[in-house]
Specification:
Elements: H1 2-28, H2 35-46, E1 49-59, E2 65-74, E3 83-92, H3 94-98, E4 104-114, E5 117-129, E6 132-142, E7 145-154, E8 160-171, H4 172-180, E9 187-189, E10 191-201, H5 205-210, E11 213-226, H6 230-242, E12 254-267, E13 270-279, E14 283-292, E15 297-306, E16 315-323, E17 327-331, H7 333-358, H8 361-370
Length: about 375
């Protein structure tokens, strides 16, 4: 029993000493003294201009580390940061900090922005040596959904990047508002899944976008295109087909859909698609064209096929062109009339061919001879 009491007393004393050591460390070692070291280390390793400001504090749970109120990265000679992080906790060994090193293996970010995109509650693993940076795994909250992926960077004089990301159940309207601006005319309402696999090079936003190569895909279930009323354009097309003025309709300024999917091939910052498909209650839309991430422009050709039109399968042509924030959406009446003329000519040819096939043999032979 005496031995047990001695062991228990020793354990309690050890815990008390640890708590006292932590208290004294936090009391006499001001973490704000480490801000210049953190800024210098990050700037030296990345080659970017780094701002570390706001109060710093020690973090002891669940892992020891240091929490920095604000860290911002910007390209040299550019005052606008492309990475802006708040409440960043570097998980590190206290002995490394005492020797003037960060010594981190992963870090947490309460909230931040990458270019125009917001993330929250990010956990990022980090492996960094000799200008080779690997951020893996990356998990975060993204506009109500989740984000997972990895980033590799070769931080030489001209940095090279490789990004692999998958986002699930992301609210697309606030995401697109941040990317295209709050005054954007066109948006998407609904939750979507987005996957990207791209590479690039450069330091500034313009360099990175211009060097962007890879692919992206998306899928949205039960949503709406805001600012695009395809139902009204279909009504206009029906009036042209019937050759009488369209009835007065009140545009809804949106198109409700059941399913919207597509893939993009990205080359030099221009994303091209030829398989974007939208399934609406009364029609199907097939799209092809491109989106310039550098110029913030869009040029898409849509083919709207009515589901009840199973015989002719006439595709109603619609174009979307202009700036991403405020494109022009219109029915291509000229192309529609061309398609109608082709359809009528095809019907005439079919009728003539049918009559020839049922004509007397000698007449059929004569007509076939004339057609040679």
């Amino acid at each position: 029993m005496k031995l047990i009491r001695i062991v228990a007393s020793s354990a309690v004393l050890l815990v008390a000493l640890c708590i006292l050591a932590v208290f004294l460390f936090a009391l006499f070692m001001d973490p704000n003294r480490l801000k210049p070291m953190i800024a210098e280390t990050l700037q030296q390793e990345t080659g970017y201009d780094v701002v570390v400001d706001g109060p710093c504090s020690w973090s002891f749970y669940p892992y020891p580390g240091i929490t920095v109120a604000h860290i911002a990265f910007s390209a040299p000679a550019n005052t606008t940061p492309f990475v802006d992080l708040h409440k960043v906790t570097f998980v590190t060994q206290l002995t490394a900090l005492l020797h003037g090193r960060l010594g981190y293996s992963h870090f947490y970010v309460n909230d931040g922005r990458l270019f125009d995109i917001s993330v929250e509650h990010a956990y990022i693993g980090m492996h960094w040596q000799n200008k080779q940076l690997l951020l893996k795994p990356i998990t975060a909250k993204l506009y109500g959904g989740t984000l997972q992926g990895s980033v590799y960077g070769n931080l030489s004089a001209l940095p090279h990047w490789a990004v692999l990301m998958h986002a699930s159940h992301v609210a697309l309207q606030p995401l697109l508002q941040d990317v295209n601006g709050r005054d954007s005319k066109v948006s998407v309402l609904g939750q979507g899944d987005i996957s990207i696999q791209v590479t690039s090079q450069g330091k500034s936003r313009e360099q990175i976008l211009n060097g962007l190569e890879g692919k992206a895909s998306f899928q949205v279930v039960e949503g709406a295109l805001l600012g695009i009323d395809l139902n009204a354009l279909v009504s206009d097309a029906a009036a042209i087909i019937a050759q009488h003025p369209a009835e007065l309709t009140v545009p809804s300024s949106q198109t409700v859909f059941d399913h919207f999917t597509g893939t993009f091939q990205i080359h030099h910052g221009v994303a091209t698609t030829n398989d974007a498909t939208l399934l609406a209650p009364t029609f199907t839309v097939h799209s092809n064209g491109e989106v310039s991430l550098i110029a913030d422009t869009i040029a898409l050709q849509l083919r709207v096929i009515l589901k009840q039109d199973t015989h002719s399968r006439l595709a109603i042509p619609v174009t979307i062109a202009g700036s991403l924030a405020n494109p022009v959406i219109r029915l291509d009446a000229t192309l529609l009339n061309v398609e109608l003329a082709k359809q009528k000519l095809g019907s005439v040819i079919d009728r003539v061919r049918d009559q020839v096939q049922h004509a007397p043999d000698n007449l059929s032979h004569v007509l076939q001879s004339l057609g040679k």
